[in-house]
Amino acid sequence: MTELRHAISGTPPRPIRSPIDKIALLAAPGLLYLAVLYAIPLLLLLLQSFRSEDGGITLDAYTSFFAESYNLEVLLRTLRVAFLTTLLSLAIAYPTAIAMNRAKGVWLTVFLVAMVLPMSLGVVVKAFAWSILFRSNGALNQTMEFIGLIDAPIRMLFTETALVVGAANVFLPFMVLPIYAVLRQQDEALQHAAASLGAGPIFRFFNVSLPLTLPGIVAGAAFVFSMSISMYVIPSLIVGETQQTLPMLIARSFLYLRNEQLGSTISAILLIIAIVVVLSSSFLAARLGAKE
Amino acid sequence: MRAIAPSSVESAVPYMNEESRDARYLEVVMVRKSFRGTTVMDEMNFRMARGELVSLLGPSGCGKTTLLRIIAGLMPADEGEIVLGPRNITNLPAHKRNISVVFQNYALFPHLTVGENVGFGLKARGHAKSEIESPVRDALRLVRMESYMDKPIAGLSGGQQQRIAVARALVVRPDLLLLDEPFSALDRKLRETMQVELKSLLRDSGITAVFVTHDQEEALGVSDRIAVMNAGRIEQFADPSTLYARPATPFVMDFVGLSLRLNGTATEKADGACDVGTSHGSVRTPIALRKGEGAVIGVRPELVRAFPSGEAPALEAGRNRVEVVLEDVMVLGSKTMLHGRCDEPDRLVCELPGIKAGFARGQKVVFDWAIEDTLAYGAAA
Asked: Which CATH superfamily is domain B258-378 in?
């Protein structure tokens, strides 16, 4: 009867009030998953870094970490590598994203496959392939020596440069895709409007294209930077023990030194850096996008 | 001649004088354009005077937007030349042409404020910040948006966005203003207001402007002259009244305004006139057509009179008459439209002023109009 009445009067039945939006419940599995596998274990790890030997709370672990110059060197290297990796990825990704945005049909597919396919290969395979190319008696050195560009083989593996180049290669898609996504949304008429108002290519780039792609750049940079500071496999394979980074130091603390407090202390430092990067980038992205 | 004051342009549009340099202010000469082997524009020639407002009118795909883009430099022509004032701009990139464009969706920069949008062109031309503020303020005052100077673009209504787009285009003092379907994104009421507003604004600034539109009412209302385009060609280039009263081709007749239209065959010649046999009887035309030739005749519906059969007076000399069965009677307030029963592509329509009673669907009526008002086209047209 009621349904009939609603059908006649045209007013929908009044929804029953519920304190919880039912749609919001869809987030529950994800939240639960994150809590059990991310938040809780991490919290336990953090707590461990503050525990003193007698069971109290102390910052000793942190002060002793920063007192060691070797640790600072590793921290600095980690940040430097992450920064340079982000910069290199951006330098390669930006023009790539522009080209992808111009590409149509088959070419766009080629670009997307080229972007995704290497990800399925895995870092290990890549790293060994690189070593064939870059090692002292590798293909690149032999070719350069043959042409006469160099007299003796150049050391390319086990250097910071190699690490940056390798990391950028692995993380490149995470820079390209956010920038591409932003570019795709951009109205081509904006470029035409700028041109018809007398703006040449360089002025257009700095005053239209760049500001409008900044949110994509910030997102991509946040991805690549946070992945770069926490990468373990890539530096292990490319530079090995000679040039440690924070994640390698963490692994060594847990696996070899059996020093769980040191490990969790470095983890906490890494986490803080990551949080700062993610928060400041989302703040930046929100500010840049504010006028849109 | 070059330093002509903007206010004097309006009164003396000199396009009738072919010798004047201002009469050939913008010239499009023998422009050709094809996309992937399909020719969309062949030997396009187009010329307009300084201070004129010209519309490119045509259905979608007729090449009007292509022509606008070629003039603006946003798309290269395959062949041909574009001359603007004393400059041959054929090979100049868009940003060196000094031609502003108002785009269909306005293309305002979402990351800039209203004031920054309007000042963009001046900044791009290398003006210092201090030199930009006052012209920007003037331009915004012109479009009554001065108080929006520091507001973001988001949240502006369609009409406001259009005003900003126009201010942004005019503030750089362009040699030519192009408008690509500038009203199509606005609802009907607002569109009419903006048309009046923009027309007087363009007149006051003395600018030379080209509108691209598919809306014939808009073209008739806004422009000095209209180029009706079809399939990459200009079918007729004339002022609105000529275009309406004397359309050069059946396409123009059908595209600009409504008309009664009958297809038939020219039968008989008589003193420069001619009879055309149609499925609704014989119609006399004021011009001669070749005997046996297929022909299209038309007449504007407001020039047609209607009488219920039987009440019709005797046929006067110099008039045409067809008998029709009414298919529909539409009372539209300011006018009443009578539609007669016929087969495509024939069309039988009569427009009577005001609300007219006494006509009903299925009724037999007589449509009656002057021979001199009859438009006639041979197969060649």
From this structure: Nucleic acid-binding proteins (2.40.50.140)
